[in-house]
Specification:
about 220 residues; globular; Rossmann fold; seven-stranded parallel beta sheet; 7 strands; 2 domains
């Protein structure tokens, strides 16, 4: 959602105006009614669709296997096959890449696929970095083939200093360092689970249970 709002609310423009002490009211575009194509519609896609539907967006999910129903419980239209995927790419305002990282999907999003998208489309990558050709993406952004992109995963991480993506302007690219799962909540409970596992074979059962519930309760109090 943040990636979509970043472009439609022009976050970079507001930040630049503030830095210049400039009052700059401008027209913005609503998300309601915009079309979202999720390529690789699995568990993450379903969780995303739940949020997108709440904003009144039209969501289509493309899967590798044939769906058993046309529309799922979130109102997402389910499709599969190359022809349907190409149609979704051509029609979507936002294309969300959540493909798994396999040999079959390696650099799947390339110059050819970017050229299928609307010039006003925004590409969002939150799956696996190897599924996109980053040089082709940089060219598509520089040449105006697509409106913008939000990328959180990369083929090589950390992203090399020589990557052309670093030089793309903020109004065309939102680049984040694969950190969507690094929240206080997730880090705390990962640590708690590690401590629990580490001591599992050394503590009496009653003490182990007490320590587990202490971590659990303490986590909810501070988060």
């Amino acid at each position: 959602m943040y990636s979509m709002l970043y472009f439609y609310r022009q976050t970079w423009r507001s930040l630049a105006s503030r830095a210049e002490h400039k009052w700059d009211p401008f027209l913005m575009v609503e998300l309601r009614g915009r079309k979202v194509g999720i390529i690789g519609y699995g568990d993450i896609g379903q969780a995303s669709a739940k949020l997108l539907s709440a904003f009144g967006m039209e969501v289509t999910g493309v899967r590798r296997s044939a769906p058993t129903k046309e529309v799922d419980e979130y109102g997402v239209r389910l499709l599969h096959g190359d022809a349907e995927r190409e149609r979704v790419l051509r029609e979507s305002d936002f294309v969300v890449n959540i493909l798994p990282g396999t040999e079959e999907t390696k650099r799947f999003f390339n110059k050819e696929l970017f050229s299928m998208m609307k010039p006003s489309a925004v590409y969002i990558s939150i799956g696996r970095g190897i599924t996109q050709n980053e040089d082709d993406l940089a060219c598509a952004l520089r040449d105006g083939v697509i409106r913008g992109a939000s990328v959180n995963v990369f083929e090589r991480e950390p992203l090399p200093a020589e990557s052309p993506l670093w030089d793309i302007s903020d109004d065309k690219l939102l680049l984040t360092a694969h950190s969507a799962d690094r929240t206080v909540y997730s880090v705390f409970f990962s640590l708690a689970f590690f401590c629990f596992w580490w001591n599992a074979n050394e503590m009496p059962p009653r003490q182990l249970c007490c320590r587990f519930f202490f971590f659990f309760a303490y986590g909810f109090c501070i988060l």
